[in-house]
Amino acid sequence: MHDFLKKIPLLADLSESDLDLLGQLAEVVQLKAGDLLFAEGSASDRAYIIKEGRLDIIKAAATGDMLLAIREAGEVIGEISLLDDEPRLASVAARTDSVLLAISREQFNHLLETSPAASRAILRILLPRWRATEAALQNAQTELAQRLAESRQRNAELTTVNIISQALNAELELSSLLDLIGEQMRQTFTADIVYLALYDPQTNMIHFPYDFENGQRLVGESICFGQGLTSKIIQSGQPLLINHNFEQHRNGLGAEQIGSQAKSFLGVPIQLGQQSIGVISVQSTKQEERFNDNDVRLLSTIAANVGAAIQNARLFEAIQQAKRGLERELEIGREIQAGFLPEQLPHLPGWEIAARFQAAREVAGDFYDAFPLAGGDRVVLVLGDVCGKGVGAALFMTLFRSLIRASAHLIYSTGYAEGTAAPLDDMSTLKNMVTLTNNYVARTHYRASMFASLFLGVLNPVTGSLIYLNGGHESPQILGAEGVKAALEPTGPVVGLFADMDFKIRQVHLEPGDTLYAFTDGVIDAQNSAGEMFSREKLHSLLACPVASVAALLDLIETALNTHVAGANQYDDITMLAVQRISDR
Predict the structure, then answer these.
(1) Which of 200, 266, 497, 515 could form a disulfide with 451 if both were Cys (CB 3.0 to 4.6 A apart)?
(2) C-alpha to C-alpha distance for 206 and 226, rounded to whole angstroms
(3) Are residues 126 and 62 in the same domain?
(4) Using an 8 Å Cβ cutoff, are 222 and 211 in contact?
(5) Does one domain contain both 271 and 399?
(6) Does residue 502 carry a pLDDT above 80?
(7) What is the enclosing helix (H) or strand (E) of 172?
(8) Residue 112 · residue 119 · CB < 8 Å
(9) How does strand 98-104 pair with strand 264-272?
């Protein structure tokens, strides 16, 4: 240790006794590659000498972490923070497996106070490193400023695109935009005649959505493609400037006169890629030599913007049509999915069953069910939450629900599980229901990696017995007169992820007055605009409130949820199922 410390520039001038003492007091710290030694902003209480390995010096920036330096064996890190007693200026993480010697602040200060040689050595190390660190930070700030400037520029461009998109979100707004451009051109060029023409290749007609002449707005009459100078410009795809002898030039082009005759004429094509889709024209009926090359360039720029605007409008309309189609499909999907939820819950003498369902999107991954089995002496209770969001989760929701219903009716109607010859009791039947559902999804749809947390129970309304399994779901609560009596914890994994999983079956007894309350995580995870969750604690406080019925209990919780969320976007589906035993049958 003495020989190693002697080679450290920071400690090279220390006496032999100081080195020996330091070697005895230093603490050995071992790091694996990727381990964090200390974080930027943390308290400074140690300096470290690298005995083995390499470590990264990392500075946080708005655009991401920046690597300032790499320190190797024989170098010291953390000494700057020890000197000025300020929080760490940067983070340090092991690039490779590393061994360090830690020197505490007390030991470090003792060296500075008792060894002038150590103080000089430290200054020789610190001043260049401080300058290098300052330069690195300055470079980082410069780079950050450049990135922020680029970001502002991009934001400005996106803002422009957004304004155009908002103006063109319907054909009526496109017309308004064309009107605005026409008025701006009339004012910019002080023209007597201004028009915008659009060519419709399907009808082979040219239309004039904006036409201004001699101080008034006209209703532009459509012409056949091939007539007038407008057709010539569309055909050539080039600007046309006629500043004198207008009639002679027009006749030379083989174009007939349409509308008032001009003395100066400027028309440019509206281009969409390599195709001319229209024309913008400004004209003077009083003055020759009215327009010049600068006007040609300016009007061509306007025309290019108009072409881009028309393209954006068409794309936007296509998107809108696709969106409307998708919304309609989602609405159909929502209606279909709603059909997979029970239209009405079973009515059992001496029992009350209620449910609440609120989807976060048009279609949902949550589901609930309650249905009697063959013979009517058992009722199946189901509450599930399929992983993910949107259409994919909704499709698997319908699959899980259908499999559970089908397997329940199949097994309970026959009394036998598939592939068995012996009749089943209630617990075995319930286990076979979930096993059939789990294995089908896991084996048939394993590529989708979809699964559901699931509470599944079979209630005997006569005895109050409830056999159940909890496949990775939020624990339903058994409520009594004194509050929560029991929580039905998970008895197995989520359903559908892996085949042949073991699901334990449990049994509870609901006494008169007891309530079973089951819910999905969308209840406790519901967030308000500040990002605060509704929380399990708040839910438990509501479950302790006396209510007249389970419907009133669900209304109480739903009202509290709506108050908590207060207009914030709903992130997850919210589903609740409650069953209360009112009296003995």
Answers:
(1) 497
(2) 9
(3) yes
(4) no
(5) no
(6) yes
(7) helix 171-189
(8) yes
(9) unpaired
DSSP helix/strand/coil, 365: coil
Among all chains, which residue has been given the structure tokens 């300052």?
134
**CA dist., res. 560 & res. 547, Å (int):** 14
Report the alpha-carbon distance of residue 43 to residue 585 in Å, rounded: 68
- Number of structural domains found in the chain: 3
Q: What percentage of residues in the chain have a pLDDT greater than 90?
A: 42
**What is the C-alpha separation between 60 and 77, in angstroms, rounded?**
17
Q: Mark whether 410 and 366 lie in a shared domain.
A: yes
Over the Cα atoms of the chain, what is R_g?
39
- The span from the CA of 537 to the CA of 526, in Å, is 13
- CATH code, 270: 3.30.450.40
8 Å CB contact between 576 and 479: no
Rounded to two decimals, the pTM is 0.51
Query: By mean pLDDT, which of 218-222, 254-258, 308-312, 471-475 is the weakest?
Result: 308-312
Does 68 score more than 60 pLDDT?
yes
pLDDT tens, position by position, 352-405? 999 999 888 767 788 999 999 866 788 999 999 998 877 778 888 888 988 998
Taken in order 571, 572, 577, 578, the sign of the CA dihedral is: negative
Burial 221-259 (b: 16+ CB within 10 A, else e): eebebeebbbbbbbeeeebbbbbeebeebbeeeebeeeb
